[in-house]
Design brief:
The chain is of the alpha+beta class. The chain contains eight helices and 26 strands.
Length: 448
């Protein structure tokens, strides 16, 4: 346990972080490029309580969205006190001048026209999606809007060397007021560049040029609409396009978006359907509904499904012991190294040295506690496969280490297996040939 002295030292930065997080949780979100706000020179005011610098923006058409969701339009002015936004001043014909304190506002923005963004056509963005082109967008309510479109923000996915976009400006004509759309309000967007249609599709809470999709890994393409089918029940199958919806922390997809051939979209959670499939790069991928979400199948046929068990229960005792002992040894080595240069026999040490030694002792104890915790709580499981028989609704659990033995026993249930050569039997029972094994078993079962 940490002493009270050191606990206080550790809690101070934590408390500061907590206060900062509270501030950011209540911070207002600016919907417009910062350069659209024209800040005037500040006015300095000094009293016996301190000095304040009040700064105002030039009044321009804009809006605020209150925490209640109400949107107030009019001439917008921002007021900063010592570089922190304090008030939003909105004036319109209906309500006159109203002042909103910063804590009451969730979003704010300028209502520009195209020339404000492009500096009368002189500003061209490197990320082409941010430049205005004729085009159209389709809202989530299936309303098509034709006019001029451009993305507000571009973001770089350095891991995949991709550029994706967030938020959209739309205007019916070149001199009309720009309307802002958030990405989750739009289903589809197209820009017409030199008479060529450039389509942008949903990606990572925003949009990506559809031409870039082939650079995205296969497993990430499941998040885009792909041709496929949904098995609601055994006798009810829907055909159309499917996009997976991944949670922020979940390993497996929890829901899917389904677009019917008519264009109508629906959302299905994992407890509402039995299975679905998607076609990516010419290959069909299958997913089965479970309590954890949709599990990818290694094989799916008329009789059998095979998938890795996401919650294995067979303990690998040897691997568990090795991990447990290793954690204790590592923690012992680290704590020994921390304590090795502390001279216990030395009586006269400075206060600074005493504090250093106390911290080393505390850290060594913490390391030992972590090692003990890992030892007590670590359990390593064998990889398990589940073979599901659709005809009799039975699950067979197969351990990876026993795969050939267990698969051989399952293959023997088919009469034709006995007529195979020893080499053919060995090949079919091999885990690397699991697809061929189950395809053979499917054909054999259908003839029995």
């Amino acid at each position: 346990m940490l002493s009270k002295k050191y606990t206080v030292k550790l809690l101070k930065p934590v408390f500061i972080i907590f206060l900062l997080s509270c501030h950011f949780l209540t911070a207002q979100k600016n919907d417009s490029p910062e350069e659209l706000y024209e800040w005037r020179n500040g006015i300095t005011k000094t009293t016996n309580k301190g000095t304040w610098v009040n700064t105002y923006t030039k009044a321009r058409p804009g809006y605020v969205i209150l925490n209640s969701g109400e949107k107030v339009r009019g001439t917008l002015q921002l007021k900063k006190v010592n570089d922190v936004i304090e008030n939003f001043i909105v004036e319109n014909k209906t309500h006159g001048k109203k002042i909103f304190v910063s804590d009451s506002v969730s979003h704010y923005g300028i209502t520009p026209i195209i020339s404000d963004i492009t500096n009368d056509g002189t500003k061209i963005f490197d990320e082409d999606g941010r430049n205005f082109y004729k085009g159209w967008l389709i809202t989530k309510d299936n309303i098509r809007l034709d006019g001029y479109v451009a993305f507000v923000e571009s973001k770089k996915d350095n891991k995949r060397n991709l550029v994706w976009y967030d938020k959209v400006y739309f205007s019916e004509d070149e001199k009309g007021e720009l309307k802002l759309f958030y990405s989750d309000e739009i289903k589809e967007l197209v820009q017409l560049k030199y008479s060529k249609e450039i389509m942008y599709i949903r990606y990572n809470k925003g949009f990506i040029n559809s031409a870039e999709i082939n650079r995205v890994k296969t497993e990430e393409q499941f998040n885009f609409y792909k041709k496929g089918s949904v098995t609601v029940t055994k006798n009810s199958v829907l055909h159309g396009e499917i996009a997976q919806v991944m949670g922020d922390t979940s390993t497996f997809c929890k829901a899917i978006l389904f677009k019917a051939e008519s264009g109508i979209e629906s959302k299905f959670n994992s407890n509402e359907i039995e299975a679905f499939n998607q076609e990516v790069n010419g290959k069909k991928y299958f997913f089965k509904s479970t309590e954890l979400g949709f599990i990818p199948l290694m094989f799916s046929g008329n009789v059998y499904d095979l998938y890795k068990n996401p919650k294995p229960s067979s303990v690998n005792t040897k691997a568990t012991k090795i991990t447990q002992v290793s954690s204790l040894l590592v923690s012992l080595l680290i704590s020994t190294a921390l304590l090795s240069d502390i001279d216990v026999a030395k009586k006269e040490t400075s206060l600074q040295e005493q504090n250093k030694n106390a911290m080393k002792l505390e850290l060594a104890n913490s390391v030992n506690e972590i090692g003990s915790s890992i030892y007590e709580n670590t359990v390593i499981y064998y990889e398990e496969y589940i073979l599901y028989n659709k005809l009799n609704n039975e699950n067979t659990i197969i351990l990876e280490k026993d795969f050939e033995k267990r698969m051989g026993a399952i293959l023997k249930s088919c009469h034709a297996y006995s007529k195979l050569s020893k080499e053919q039997k060995n090949n079919l029972a091999n885990i690397d040939a699991i697809t061929e094994s189950l395809e053979w078993l499917e054909k054999c079962t259908s003839f029995q």
